Amino acid sequence: GKEPHQIQIVRLEEGRTAADFAAAIKADPVHIPSWGRLMGGPNGVLSGSRAATLQALTPGAYVLVCWLPDPGGAPHLTLGMTKSVTITGAAKPAPEITPDITLTLTDFAYALSKPITAGRHTIRVVNQGKEVHEALVVQLPPGGSAKAFGRALTPGKPSAGLPPGKPIGGVVGLAPGEQAVFDMTFTRGRYGLLCLFPDRASGHPHFDKGMVHELEVK
Questions:
Q1: How far apart are alpha carbons 130 and 211 in whole angstroms?
Q2: Sheet containing strand 36-38, strands side by side
Q3: pLDDT in tens, 98-138
């Protein structure tokens, strides 16, 4: 596409559809319906770029959606960016993966098991909080900040073009207790981690509650 996109994987309870989920989010963007469980997926990248995650999924009904907003502030899923998926067959054991870094999500902070250095890393992301969280990885330009990037992408707030910074993937929303893995090659420079999901009580994005982290990769 011409805009940044991501793929959020949502497990649906039996009888629910992609249209049901989109309608529920359009009616109430702050509260994710109890019958939709967020399972991760590759986070936002720019046009022409790629991102990937790996996570275990059991048989059932799912919907793929994009939370990111268009230039007018409307989340892409409310514009039709949804895809129904049915997983069939017997559940298989998850493959053995040995991450070299673990990124732990809590309410409302990030914790890395060790500093990220230049090169390729396999990162396991685990949500130990009580709310849905994500890890959007942003490559920051000189003078840019992760919080400024997040404010420009907050749904409902129109933005004139892209904010300073380049989204390069990570893991989109994980329900409490869920986890996913992603591989990423880091070059030297400044990066940010942030969570755009809204707080259930206040509606403010999690990065405004402190869930934002900047790091220097050497």
A1: 14
A2: 36-38, 8-12, 60-65, 82-87
A3: 999 999 999 999 999 999 999 999 999 999 999 999 999 99
